[in-house]
Structures are given as structure tokens and as C-alpha cells.
Amino acid sequence: MPLRDHFGTDGKDWTTIHGGLPMIVATQLNARLPARYRAGLNIRIGGGREIDIGTFELDAFEGDTGFPDSSGGTALATMTKAKATYVPESTWDDTLDWMETDDFEVLIYDRNGERELVAAIEIISPSNKDRVEQRRLFTSKCSTLLKYGVSVSMVDFVTDHPANLYGCWLDEWGKIDKNLADPRSPIYAVTLRERYRRGRKRIESWYWPLAIGEPLPTLPIWLTESQAVPLELEEAYEQTLKDLRLA
User: Fold this and answer.
1) 149-179 as b/e, with b when 16 or more CB fall inside 10 Å?
2) How does DSSP classify residue 89?
3) Cis peptide before 183 (omega within 30 of 0)
4) Dihedral of the alpha carbons of 7, 245, 124, 116, in degrees to the nearest 10
5) Computed over its alpha carbons, how large is the radius of gyration of the chain?
6) pLDDT tens per residue, range 16-45
7) Distance CA 108, CA 33 (A)
8) What are the structural domain ranges in the chain?
9) Are the beta carbons of 189 and 210 closer than 8 angstroms?
């Protein structure tokens, strides 16, 4: 099914598409991934962040700790409640304009041994593109993922902002992709990955400019340096529109 403009005259259903497409993509990939891998979702609206806090059980006790003290005996440990102390007035008080961005991601993990992230598929939202700071935050995130060997794909249907985040990422590194025509297409799909070649780390990319009314490409999603699965964007997009009654 040809790509529609979900930000222009075709309606205001982009949030529905962005909410539905990741699930279809994850379902499609889980049907094709080897058993050791699993695709899951990470969708966060408005820049909300999940914080994983490690917790430790602290038992109040008095007795043999098993650690020798300086005298050669065993140390005793006791716990007491901390007393409230005087806190001076703060030296600075003002507001901060936190960057509110949305995350629509499909993440693929290798479940053998440690749960290792191997691929990230980013469905670009308007909040990723509409400010310089947000664009830098997104491209920095992509660079970090690539540095740790994670395959990164970007799927950008956002027609109401001219920024091309793949182009922004290239600009930050001073690199050129001859397939990135001038003017740059505001909608596109690309996969990036790091690999060793001739003893050096290199970045490879597979880039497609998109166009309203045209079919969508198939992206390679890399699991290892020599193993990839296809992401059939056309199939996933068509299924999303059908399931959400937007077709």
C-alpha cells in the first residue's frame, strides 16, 4: 500500500500510526527471528523515562559480621537512624525547560546469556525533529547505540518538518552519503551498523528516500555481523492501516 501523508491533508492520524506500527513490526519480526532473539516495544510519550533502581535489603543487626577488625577480632555493625540536620537555603532557584520527546522503538534482544540489545528500530516522531537540541539528543543516542554494536534503523514518515535525522547524524561526524540527495528528503528509511573491515571499525548504511504515494522498502535488521533479518516495511505499514481501519 503506497505511503500516505499522515501529517498533511490526509488527516491527523499520525499518533495512531505511530502507536500501532511498532507492535506490527515487532510481531512481524518475532515470526522471523531465530529462537534466541526477541523483539519488544519501548514507547514513551512526552519524554518520560523509566528508571531502574537497584534495591538492597539492609538488615539491622548486631553481631559477628565475618570481617576482621584492626585488632584481629571481628567487627560489630549496628544501624542507627540518621538525625535531621540543618539545610541552608539553596543558592539558585529557577525553572528548566526539559526537552519533551516521544520514543517509538522496537528493540531486539539476544536472550542467550546476558540479555543483550542487538538492534533498535526508531519510528521518528515530530518531537525528535522540531528543535536543534532534540535532533542532537536523538543523533547522540544513535551514535551511542552504534558504538556498542547495536544495529540502528530509522523510519521517518514525518512530512511537516524538513529535518532529515540521518543527514544530521552524518553532518555531526563530517561524513557524506552520496545517496542523500540535495535537497534532503524529509521522509526516509535507513539502517546503520558498525562492523570490522580490514582491521578497522567502519559504519555501513542502507538508505532509501521515501515519497508519498510510493511503496516502502525492505530494511536489513542486523543481529550479528553476518546475520540479518528483513523488515518488510510495506507489509507492516499495510497491516497497520488495515488493523486500525485507516486503509
Assistant:
1) bbbbbbbbbbbebebbbbbbbbeeeeeeeee
2) P
3) yes
4) 180
5) 24
6) 888 899 999 999 999 999 999 999 999 888
7) 9
8) 14-46+99-243
9) yes
